[in-house]
Amino acid sequence: MPFLIALGCIILILIAWIRTPKGKGWLGELKVRLFVGKTKPQERYVINNLTIRVDNTKTCQIDHIVINKNGVYVIETKNYSGRIYGQENHLEWTQVLNYGKVKNKFYNPIKQNKTHLYHVSNLLTENLPLFSAVVFIQGNTQFINAEGVYTLGELRRLLKSDNRSTLSPKQMECAYSALIHANDTSISRKEHIQNIRTNQQNLSNNICPRCGKKLVLRQGKNGSFMGCEAYPQCKFTKNI
Ligand SMILES: [Zn+2]
């Protein structure tokens, strides 16, 4: 009997935890992990939760990387419920819950993942096709107006699409080993979150969160914006 009570308590704690943002994030990543499958040498290489150190105050955590003959897919997963409103070039997107009573802003995941792509390309020894995929696990992408946003089913089709064969098994393996060697398991979640905060402060002080150079005022066809001074190496932009 005490055993059953203990088991019941553990189950209740687990159910409560899975509803927290941390629990939801974990469950979301687990779903994608099961979805993309495991590494199959010569055919597909998978890295889950790659953490790399860019410099002293910059770390980068990538949910999933899949390398197949099409190229290197950098996957960011979001397990958000409710309605998600997002525009490709806006700095922040909005999650709307409870029929509009709760609104949460979050950093545009397209921009977040572009930064990941930038760091991944710096780690690769040759120029390979890189693809960004932001996946909304709950499939709530209907109010998002941006390229590169997928539901799980769309991600499956994307990874299986077969029209871009370019990489040889050797190239896939080289890319995989370059990335797996860069994985720094000594970076704690706490340090990574602290670094994200530092970078958010930098962004408001017009320092590029991608490469650390200055953001400068530029003119485009849609008016003025802040762009990285390292353009075209770094293509980070911020609306004003
Ligand atoms: Zn930059």
Description:
The protein has 240 residues and is α/β, with parallel strands linked by helices. The chain folds into 2 domains: 23-205, no CATH class; 208-240, no CATH class. The protein is 36% helix and 30% strand. The protein has helices at 2-18, 21-36, 109-123, 152-160, 169-182, 189-204, and strands at 45-55, 58-68, 71-78, 83-87, 92-97, 102-107, 130-136, 144-145, 149-150, 215-220, 223-228, 237-239. The strands form 3 sheets. The protein has a 5-stranded mixed β-sheet, with helices on both faces. A hairpin with a 2-residue loop joins strand 2 (58-68) and strand 3 (71-78). The radius of gyration is 19 Å and the shape is globular. The structure holds zinc ion. Residues 208, 210-211, 213, 228, 230, 234, 236 line the site of zinc ion.
Main features:
alpha/beta; binds zinc ion; 6 helices; 240 residues
In short:
36% of the residues lie in helices and 30% in strands. The chain is of the alpha/beta class and 240 residues long. The model has no long low-confidence stretch (mean pLDDT 90).
Strand and helix order: HHEEEEEEHEEEHHHEEE
* Overall average residue pLDDT: 90
Task: Give the oligomeric state.
Answer: single chain
Helix content: 25-40%
Which stretches are poorly predicted, pLDDT < 50 over at least 5 residues? none
Instruction: Indicate the structural class.
Output: alpha/beta
> The biggest beta sheet, please?
5 strands, mixed
Rg (C-alpha, Å): 19 Å
List the total number of helices: 6
Question: What is the distance, rounded to the nearest whole angstrom, between the alpha carbons of the first and last residues?
Answer: 63 Å
Count of β-strands: 12
Overall geometric form:
globular
Total count of domains: 2
What is the beta-strand fraction? 25-35%
Biggest sheet: strand arrangement: 1-2-3-7-9
Bound molecules: zinc ion
